Amino acid sequence: AQSVTQPDIHITVSEGASLELRCNYSYGATPYLFWYVQSPGQGLQLLLKYFSGDTLVQGIKGFEAEFKRSQSSFNLRKPSVHWSDAAEYFCAVGPNNAGNMLTFGGGTRLMVKP
Amino acid sequence: DAGVTQSPTHLIKTRGQQVTLRCSPKSGHDTVSWYQQALGQGPQFIFQYYEEEERQRGNFPDRFSGHQFPNYSSELNVNALLLGDSALYLCASSDGTGTYEQYFGPGTRLTVT
Question: Cβ B100–A101 below 8 Å, yes or no?
Answer without folding.
Answer: no
